[in-house]
Amino acid sequence: MLHIDEAQRKDPDVRLQLMHDSDITILCLPDEAAHEAVALADGVASIRFIDASTAHR
To answer: Sign of dihedral through CA atoms 44, 9, 25, 38?
Structure first.
């Protein structure tokens, strides 16, 4: 399991790198933040998400 450091959790480069390094990324975020997280990975087919928000239902 990968964890993001609290001080870096809003850094888009760090977030994208962790998404890329993981087998699957689980989002448990408000809708707007979930949209932003998925947008970071736009065009990267190898990044997979499970999203607990209502943003992508």
So the answer is: negative
Alpha carbons 30 and 28: distance in angstroms, whole number: 7
Q: Is the pTM of this model over 0.85?
A: no
Q: Which of 25, 16, 14 is nearest to 44 (CA)?
A: 16
Query: Taking a C-beta distance cutoff of 8 angstroms, is the pair 34, 51 a contact?
Result: yes
pLDDT category at 43 given cuts 50, 70, 90 is: confident
Domain ranges of the chain: 9-51
The answer for residues whose C-beta is within 8 angstroms of residue 23's C-beta and 6 or more apart is 48
Structure tokens at 37: 């997280």
